[in-house]
Design brief:
The structure is a single chain. This protein is mostly beta strands. It contains 1 helix and 6 strands. It has a domain of about 60 residues. The strands form 2 sheets. A 3-stranded antiparallel sheet has the order 1-6-3, with no helix packed on it. The chain has a 3-stranded antiparallel sheet with strand order 2-5-4, with no helix packed on it.
Length: about 90
């Protein structure tokens, strides 16, 4: 596993891309790496506006739904790592 670093107030990971599927599979390493309840998802329509939303996040997959039959969207999915201690940021330090 090789990753770069983003600055932020947590030890986090992300995955991004685009899709035409109602299921986005998260990287396999996420099951041991990310607190499932910390996952957040941002979706952006591509080509034309339509309603799109997250139905569920389970089994290392994000389930999407829309109000159109044909669609394409961008996704940005983040989560906090569970394999390391929480980051103590300056404002939280004693």
């Amino acid at each position: 596993m090789i990753y770069g670093v983003l600055e932020g107030p947590e030890h986090g990971v992300y995955v991004r891309g685009n899709s035409t599927s109602k299921v986005v599979e998260l990287p396999e390493v996420w099951t041991g790496l990310v607190h499932e309840d910390s996952i957040t998802v941002q979706l952006t329509c591509k080509g034309k506006p339509f309603n799109i939303w997250v139905e569920d996040i389970r089994d290392n997959k994000v389930y999407i739904n829309t109000d159109v039959e044909e669609f394409e969207f961008f996704y940005y999915i983040q989560g906090e790592r569970k394999d390391v201690d929480k980051l103590i940021i300056e404002r939280d330090a004693d």
